[in-house]
């Protein structure tokens, strides 16, 4: 049976974070609030958990899962190298609504789907998410909805869609408008916006001091 914790109540928030951390370590799924939409997450290094996450959403490995981190320094251990442009974007927008795609470190034993050797990383600007991430480490996280349905901006909508597939729901209140993060691909010779979301193309270009093209 799923557990739902109201994180606006101090004691319940502490109990919820402890339950969520235990669930993640046990290979189970949790739902967390973020600064964009609610996310369904699991241990990023558990291939079986990622399979369960994709199954709960009703999608396959052709749509890989991104990874949320709890600190800037975590980035260095997850990617092959951190180019100067990535450092610039991290300093400008993390924690926040910008996801960065980079080649992942080949030594990592994870399976996030058909990523082509890359990983999409973000540090969310939400205290509940950050506290959990700092406790359990990087998490594979996707929007907490069934594929083809709207991404939820509150815990009840996530519960209605995912039900008992998730062990712990952390209710951090409504996230506001369900605007996704902006995705910047830094795997090539120049940055490419794969998706414009909460951070505009102009803001990315201004931070980098160069024109940025958008994927067609």
Beta-strand content estimate: 15-25%
What's the order of the H and E elements? EHEEHEHHEEHEHEEEHE
CATH class category: Alpha Beta
- CATH homologous superfamily - what is it? DHBP synthase
How is the CATH topology named?
DHBP synthase
Estimate percent helicity: 25-40%
The average pLDDT is 94
**Main sheet record:** 11 strands, mixed
The helix/strand class is alpha/beta
Unreliable stretches: none
| C-alpha-based Rg, rounded | 16 Å
Organism: Actinokineospora fastidiosa
EC number: 2.7.7.87
GO molecular function: ATP binding; double-stranded RNA binding; L-threonylcarbamoyladenylate synthase; tRNA binding
Subcellular location: Cytoplasm
Key descriptive features of the protein:
216 residues; alpha/beta; DHBP synthase; 11-stranded mixed sheet; 7 helices; 31% helix; 21% strand; globular; ATP-binding; cytoplasm
Summarize this, please?
The protein has 216 residues and is an alpha/beta fold. It is 31% helix and 21% strand.
Describe, in plain words, how this protein is organized in 3D.
31% of the residues lie in helices and 21% in strands. It has 216 residues and is of the alpha/beta class. The protein has one domain (3-182): DHBP synthase (Alpha-Beta Complex). Strands 1-8-2-3-7-4-6-5-9-10-11 form an 11-stranded mixed sheet, sandwiched between helices. The protein is globular.
